[in-house]
Amino acid sequence: MTTPRTIECALPTGRPQRRRPARQARLAVTPGRVPRVSRLLALALRLDRLVRAGAIADYATLARLGHVSRARVSQILSLVQLAPDIQETLLFRPPTERGRDAIRLRQLQALAVLPDWRHQRRRWQELRSSTGPRTAGPPAGE
Fold this sequence. Notes:
The protein has 142 residues and is mainly alpha-helical. The chain has a domain at 36-132. The protein is 45% helix and 0% strand. It has six helices and no strands. Helix 2 packs across helix 3 (70-77) and helix 5 (105-112) runs antiparallel to helix 6. The longest helix is centred in the first third of the chain and has 18 residues, at 36-53. The protein is flat and about 70 Å long.
């Protein structure tokens, strides 16, 4: 059964005003692309939040909705097990200007299986020192 409702709204009266063209904000575009592990970690954090909030039933549902395997969902969501400071470093990595990213998902999965964050941090330092200067410091501007 439907109930009729009245909606009131104010309509402009008089002469229409000319719209001024919007000024486009100039954004500083940095060369390169966001590292893949940064994008995957951001995705993992978002998906984990959806599951915890009950918006998505479980990882199998995520896999079905994302058209990927359950194993792939587990690989990506394993990044949530990293120590918070490692996650922060990964999220704010400098853009990759050319070639492959210095850090790969497989390397991070080996860290994520370690339950002790102190061991993760130790291994993370080893990984950073072995991947060269591109990963040695914080992003530019910090």
